[in-house]
Amino acid sequence: MKQTILVVEDDKMIRDLISIYLKKSGYDVVEAVDGEEAKEVFLSKHPCLIILDLMLPKLSGEEFCTWVREQERNEVSIIMLSAKSRIEDKINGLKIGADDYIVKPFEPEELLAHIEAVLRRTGQFCQKITYDGLCIKPRKGEVLLLDQEVKLTKHEFNLLYYFMENPNTVISRESLLNQLYPYADKLILDRTIDAHIKKLRKKIEENPAVPKRIITVRGMGYKFVTE
């Protein structure tokens, strides 16, 4: 599973350069050009790490960093980028929640080394799968839809996790039954999957009657759609 990194930088040349190097290194990359857009992308994509410029329009990097820490505390890592090189600026950045602080200008290889070091320390907290604002955290047993927690039963959680681990793949009812009830009688529980999915749709679909995430593939099973 690739880790997602959010690059928040208003300078397009720098943003593109960082994104190119990150993608070549195997990361999924999402971008934002200002602090307000960064909030929207953060809630939609739930990144594992944020590369954050401090001099941003609309909302400063410091304000965005503080907001992020209020949302997910220490579940996402933050590396600040800044032309401010005074020791006081670095200390302030670390105090408000940054995991690392890099002074501009910098070499892309240097940034990658810092990213790898930060993720070695904090990566165990970032075991999550996210699609279009829906985020599942198997390590914590949590599901978020944008910034709202979704309460699921054990079977609903396991069902959603299995779907999100296998996106855009048709999964038969038999496979879903084996996943949830490996030792049960299929004949007794055949319609149970339909009931679980109906309840799950009510919790994660905008319109459960016309689902867009978990769709029925007639005669074959179900598919979790991300495309």
Please provide a written account of the structure.
The protein is an alpha/beta fold and 227 residues long. Helix content is 43%, strand content 21%. The chain is built from nine helices and twelve strands. The radius of gyration is 20 Å and the shape is elongated. The model has no long low-confidence stretch (mean pLDDT 89).
What is the first-to-last residue Cα distance?
A: 17 Å
Which structural category fits the helices and strands? Answer: alpha/beta
Q: Reading side by side through the largest sheet, how are the strands ordered?
A: 2-1-3-4-5
Count every helix, treating DSSP H or I runs of 4 or more residues as helices.
Answer: 9
Order of helices and strands: EHEHEHEHEHEEEEHEHHHEE
Biggest β-sheet strands, sense, barrel: 5 strands, parallel
Give helix % range.
40-55%
The mean pLDDT is 89
Shape: elongated
Low-confidence stretches: none
Count all strands and give the number: 12
Which radius of gyration do the C-alpha atoms yield? Answer: 20 Å
Protein traits:
227 residues; 4-stranded antiparallel beta sheet; 5-stranded parallel beta sheet; 12 strands; Sig_transdc_resp-reg_C-effctor; alpha/beta; 9 helices; Transcriptional regulator; phosphoprotein; 43% helix
